[in-house]
Amino acid sequence: MTDQQHPPTGGCPLRAGSAGTEAVPFYGAGLSDDPARLYHTMRAQYGAVAPILLDGDIPGWFVLGYRELHQVAGNPELFARDSRRWHAWERIPEDWPLMPFVGYQPSVMFAEGPEHRRRAGAISDALTAIDQFELRLICERLADGLIDDFAGSGEADLMTSYAARLPLLVIAELFGFPHSEVPALAADIVASLNADDGAIAAHQRVVARMRRLVAAKRERPGPDVPSRLLAHPAGLAEEEVVIDLLVVMAAAQQPTANWIGNTLRLMLTDDRFALSLTGGRRSVGQALNEVLWHDTPTQNFIGRWAVRDTQLGGRRIRTGDLVILGLAAANSDPLVRPDFSEAGSDGNQAHMSFSHGEHSCPYPAPEIAEVIAKAAVEVLLDRLPDVMLAVPAEELVWHPSVWMRGLVALPVEFTPAYTPIPAMGTRPGGWG
Predict the structure, then answer these.
(1) Global pTM?
(2) Burial of residue 362, with CB atoms counted within 10 A of its CB: 0-12 exposed, 13-18 middle, 19 or more buried
C-alpha cells in the first residue's frame, strides 16, 4: 500500500468538511500515537493544507507546509489572532475541550496590531533584562535541589520529579514569588491542567496569586519580571500585567518541561548519545536541537483566523475560517528538508518550533527556555552519570494529545548518589 492509499493515522474515517472537502477528524484515540506518520500521510493525501475536523466535528484548516506556515504566521493582516473573528462560534459549546486555546481573553496572545506590539514589546524588554549567566546559576541551584530529593533512592520518574517541576520553579523565582508560596502555586498549576472538577478552582487560585504578586510589586518593586512590566514605558495597567504574566508562565511551563523530558528520553534511548552521556556539552546541545525538529513539545497551535477570503496551499480559505499551525508537520516538510534525518538537524535552527512572525515566542523567551532545558539535562547527567531507563524504551507512553508532545512518565534507575553538589559555576566543561 502506498502512502497515498493509507487511511489517516488512528483509523479515523474521512468526513465532509465545511467546504465540501473530505476532512480528517483531528481527535480521538490513537491519533497521537505516531504524529510523524500522521503528518506524512496527511501531506501525501492533501498537500500543504488539509481540511480537518476538531472535537465536535468543528471544521478547520491544518497547515502542514513549511512555506505555507511561514506565510500564515508572517502575515497577521491576513491571518489574525483575535478569535472573535471566527464564524463558528454559534456551534461551540461552553465546555468545548479546546476552549482554553480559542476563548478570547484581553491578553497579549489575542492582541493585534499596535496593541500587540505594545504588550509583546514590554514582555520582550522585561525578559531581556534577565542576566543569562545568573539565570544559569539559578537553574543549577534549583535542579540540584530537585535531584537531592531523589538521588539517594536509586530511582525516579524524571517527568514528575524533575522535568515538570524545574521550569515552574525557575519562572517563580524570575517573577519574584515568595518562596513560601511556590509549593502551593506549583500544586495549583498541575491541578489546573487536569481534566476534572478541581481544575477551574485551581486556575482561579493561580490567577489570585498572580494578582497579589503584581499588587505587591506595585508597592515594592524588585529585580523581577513583574516589576519591570509595571515600570515599562508602555504603561501597562495592573490587570494587563497579571494576564500577560499568566500567559508567559503557561508558555514557559509545559513546553519547557516536555523539551527537557523529550531530550532526556532521546539521550537515554539513542545509541548516538550513549557514549557521551557523561561528557558532552555539545551532545546535549545536539539533542535539544534534534528534539525541536523531531519531537517538538508544541506540535500544533490554534490558531489564526482569516481576515478575508484568500488562497493558501491551493485551498480556498473563507473569511473567519480557523487555521491551525502544524509546527511539527512543517518541520518535516520534504520540500524544505528532503533528507529529514536526525543527523541532518545538527546546527540547523530553522525549525518552526517557536512559530514565526510577530506572534511567535517573543525574544528572548526561546533563549531563556534553552538555558533552563540545557541546565536541566546537564546537571542531571553530571549528578547521576549512570542513569538509565528503568523500562524498555517501547514501554514509554506519550500523552494522548495532537497539541503537545510529552511523556506521561520517564522512569529511570541509577546508583544512589550522595555526591557533593559542585560550587556554582564550577561544573565540568565550563557549565554555568
Answers:
(1) 0.89
(2) buried
